[in-house]
Design goal:
Elements: H1 2-20, E1 22-25, E2 29-35, E3 38-43, E4 47-50, E5 56-62, E6 66-69, E7 73-75, E8 83-93, H2 96-103, H3 107-127, H4 134-137, H5 142-157, E9 162-173, H6 176-248, H7 250-265, H8 280-286, H9 294-298
Antiparallel strand pairs: 1-4, 2-3, 2-5, 6-8, 7-8, 8-9
Helix pairs in contact: 2-3, 3-5, 6-7
């Protein structure tokens, strides 16, 4: 009984000690075995590991690619147009021993604070370099700038045992106090372009109207000239026809001219004429002898 009473607690202590000496590292982790704060063993492959209970401890770190959002900062490119930049980075713990030595017990939180400072410093340096303007940052060359930030940040982050996999600029906006001025300048530029287009349109319209007016004037002038020519030719033909007709019968010519004079005298409301008995009008109106045969009948 006395042996059994001692063996059972001893067995429990042995089992507990054995279990506490075992640790498991999965494929997503890396582990360090520390003894009094000093690194004793590095476990980077998944599986079981052993340590001395109560003397040694195991610290595990994530081996996956992690994400870090940087603080929003203002940068000033070479064209002096300030931009508000918001970026994020992808990184992983490349050297777990160097990582532990660099950040100590602070772990990922301390590492991300220091990595954030590195990223912000490199963003300011790259985006504020010579020949880098706000237009460059907003153009297709943006990818080149991001790769440059990544490479320079990676070189500095290696001292922390970190590998910077990628850096992306999420937003590159103007500060709020500059937006109104920028929008006003853009609006003024658009209005100036619109005014130029309107002026060019009015100029083209004036040219078209002037050409149309000249064409109308020339067409009317040519038409009037042709009409005058046609009218003159017609008048000449009519005069020639009348002259021929009147030359064949002089009595008829006298009669026709008398009738025209009579017609002009009785135009409008005037219907009264005073004639002497010897008037040539009465000779035509009162004589029943056919015109053109008076002298022939007397002969």
């Amino acid at each position: 009984m006395n042996k059994a009473a001692y063996l059972l607690p001893a067995l429990v202590v042995v089992i507990a000690g054995f279990l506490s000496s075992i640790y498991v590292v999965d494929e997503r982790e890396k582990a360090l075995v520390l003894q009094f704060g000093q690194i004793v063993t590095v476990k980077e492959t998944p599986g079981l590991g052993f340590k001395i209970p109560l003397i040694q401890e195991v610290v595990k770190y994530d081996d996956r690619i992690l994400s870090l959002d940087t603080d929003t900062i203002e940068v000033t490119p070479s064209d002096d147009r300030r931009l508000v930049v918001d970026a994020f980075a992808r990184y992983r713990i490349a050297n777990v021993v160097q990582f532990r030595q660099a950040v100590g017990v602070g772990g990922l939180r301390t590492a991300e604070d220091r990595l954030g400072d590195i990223l912000n410093s490199q963003i300011r340096e790259v985006l504020g370099a010579d020949q880098v303007t706000s237009d460059t940052i907003l153009s297709q060359e943006r990818r080149v700038l991001m790769n440059r930030i990544r490479d320079q940040s990676r070189a500095q982050a290696l001292s922390l045992g970190l590998d910077v996999v990628d850096v992306r600029l999420k937003q590159t906006n103007l500060p709020d106090q500059n937006l109104d001025a920028t929008f006003a300048r853009m609006r003024a530029e658009r209005e100036r372009e619109a005014a130029d287009e309107i002026a060019r349109g009015n100029e083209a319209a004036q040219r078209v109207r002037a050409l149309a007016d000249r064409t109308v004037t020339e067409t009317i002038s040519e038409a009037e000239r042709d009409a005058q020519i046609t009218r003159g030719e017609a008048d000449a033909l009519a005069s020639n026809t009348f002259a021929t007709a009147f030359g064949e019968d002089l009595d008829f010519f006298d009669f026709y001219r008398s009738m025209q004079a009579l017609e002009r005298s009785l135009q409008g409301s005037n219907s009264t004429m005073l004639l002497s008995p010897e008037s040539s009008f009465l000779s035509y109106l009162g004589d029943d002898t056919p015109v053109g045969q008076g002298e022939t009948g007397q002969q």
